[in-house]
User: What shape does this take?
Amino acid sequence: MIARSLIKDLTRIVGKENILADLKDLISYSYDATMRQELPDVIVFLHSTKETSAIMKLAHREKIPVVPRGAGTNLSGGTIPVKGGIVLETSRMNRILEINTANRRAVVEPGVVNLDLQNALAPLGYFYPPDPASQKSSTLGGNIGENAGGPMCLRYGVTSKYVCGIEIVLADGEVVNVGDYVEDFPGYDLRGPFIGSEGMLGVATKLVLHIIPKPEASQTMLAIFNHLEDSGQAVSDIISAGIIPGAMELLDQKMCQVIEQSVSAGYPTDAAGILLIEVAGLADTLEKQVREISQICQKDKVRELRIAQTNAERDALWKGRRGAFGSVARICPPYIVCDGTVPRNKLPEALHKVGEIAEKNKVLIVNVAHAGDGNLHPLILFDVNNQEERKAAKKAGQNILDACVAMGGTISGEHGIGLEKIDAMRSMFDPADIAAMRQVKHVFDPDDIFNPGKMFPPEKEAPLPAKEKAAQG
Amino acid sequence: MNKTVPPEKQAFYQKLGKIAGAENVLTGAKATESYMVDGLTPQAVVCPASTKQVASIIREANESRVTIVPWGGGSKQPVGPCLEAAETVLCLKNMNQIIELDASNFTVQVQAGIVNGELQKQLAEKNLFFPVDPLYAERSTIGGEIAASANGPRRIMYGLIRDLVLGITAVTPTGDITHTGGKTMKNVAGLDLCRMYIGSWGTLGVITEAVLRLFPLPEASTGLYIIFPDPEDAFRMVGQLLNSPLTPSAIELVDAVAGVEVAETIGSSLNNSEVLLIVNSEGVKDDVIRHQKEIKTLAEANKAKTTIILEGEKASRAWAAYRGIHEAMLGASPSALQGKASVPISKLGDMGQQVKQISARQGVAIGVTAHCGNGILYTYLSDESGKLVRIADELKQAAASLGGFFLIESAPLSFRKEADMLPPRNDYQLMRRLKTEFDPNNILNPGRLAGGLY
Assistant: This one.
């Protein structure tokens, strides 16, 4: 618990209208999509780099934990203040400072919502490719914290590719600018470790982003399969043919059923799996791409192929996918989202494994995946009041991650480690790997002020057996 | 062996043979002089065969406080701030194998010492390629390119090497083997050390293996060679091209000073203020045809004097001539200075103009090439009348006034030793702390990069 005098000091910096310390407010900042809950001591709304720096100086002097936070849509426990302290609320730092299409740059404050930037860019014929499903509410600062992906990242790449420069306030209040507005700059690329650092290295106060012209044309297709593994095979075959669609999402039957209950996307509810494929590029060659993809789907026993004929049809198809997690939450609020990712050609095998794991642990798993990138999102559902089910769900989650690692994949493609996957870190990394990460943390934040208790497993523990299995395989 | 070497270091040199095999260790100035760098001749050159051997060597070096210079193809050694010491060169030329080519996943895992050109040959057999194309790719190693964050013209279409390296195995300066990233397209497990090692110039670790992202070889490709009497027209066209849905694979520019031979190769010539714009396109055939047509139309609308479309052998020859400019300009004189301006993309034309003004003011010819889609402009000049420092300062000021940097890459040793190589930034302290944390005894490439700030 922090001292009352400290809240007074914070109030002096930001004004009382930017401080929350009532229990009901603290509770709203105590959780995310994972099932952990811890109360912060105080929430501070930021407005400027200067304010942020002053707050950090104070926190540093008093050695108080600080958790930077965007919209809190994170899925792995990243914003849960496990050690209490100050939550830095960035949502009021939400100005778009510059959009310069000739330089292909947008400069924004961290609290700008992803979709707000997209909406500002669209009339200019430009876009910012990372498009997490949460883009309606998640902030660009939060996207950088988690190195967010999204459906279109298949063709364009994830957040790290589109961040040119970041202004960061460090733990002691020092302000540094890593990366740059221009493409090549001298010295280390400190954006590297910062992007995806889950608020553990500093707080971003200004972002320079890379924007690109929108593709001339795009088309959305829906491919419907009677067998889930055939849909996975089609994804693998499309990629192997050297075709890189804009996006290629896979949803299984239960997922479609759940989505159709809350969103009328037009998905079939009787098919084992569907692929939502968007091709993008020059208008002249789009037709050829659609034809090639159709042929591959035919070979992989597609039941039906639909091509969105109007923008409304296209939007409906995407609305279903973007609303997937929300639709599941409506029927079964507690669920575990896995984020294991496998090499792209291992998708059919991975889907098969997930099915086996569900059966073995007797849990209900619904599948949605950024299939083209091999990024699975199995959602494991359970009854929150049933201890047995809860345990089985957790075990199934671990089994899936282990299976991904054994296939040469990773425990997280885009959701991060946070609290949820701390144990799984040891199935992927050697002690020396984690030690090197800790060194980086130490360089940025020697007193462990920023988001303590996340990502790293406790020191001096042997690696899990899965690591050895993966090394042999 | 040099008699002034203290005993603990002597012991280190003796251990090298045990670790890597005596036949893989060169000692004595005579044997090692071809690895001289920044005027320093190493005591020993060791060529290990595995990541484990590299780790053993580095661990011993760290304990004996022997400085290590990691070495790939050597093409980037004389670039940037000078080394302070170079007692042992750790050359990765024996670690040149493909570990795993996973063609249907479009990834390849390689040992860091494989030469880019050699890798491309092997990939081409499977109809694949790695789209990183820096200068010297025919002799630079993948590990060296990652360490130096080396990029080429294709960066406009495929992104930077930092976007195309998916995983790295590196030995830290204390001899620990670290893995980061992997063979998936997306990976956010733990802190991203992969992108920390990329561009760290061998100061934070020795890269021993890497997983690279591959692409299918393009079905078709074409190059347009466009001559503009007025550079302003060329830059206007570039702006329009970048604002279009077209996705060229290179947008390069060369001026009359640097472009004599390229112009000859395409059967033309460049007058004083004329510039040659080269626009490459690659991909599926229909796409390439559309690019060809529209780029030609754009060129004509922007008062181009000539547009030549090249394909096949002719395109390769012209492209090779363009790529040869760097070496030709540097080789022309021992007092050559080459630098890179990195400015906002739309300011590239202004930078080009300022270079011309500086050239006129100082009475020294300055050759220019550029990656137009990325705001990168290379300058080449040579001078023996003592103006190098002055000209370099003016180029730095010009780039800074446009919101960018002018970075000196190649220069006479005396210049590199004395000149201030790094422009001001506010994150050097943080970089220095990173270097000290990873390399407390400053044994890896001391003096390079952030180390140059000591």
User: Anything to note?
Assistant: The longest helix of chain B spans residues 285-301. The CA atoms of residues 176 and 375 of chain B lie 38 Å apart. Chain B is about 35% helix and 20% strand. The radius of gyration of chain B is 23 Å.
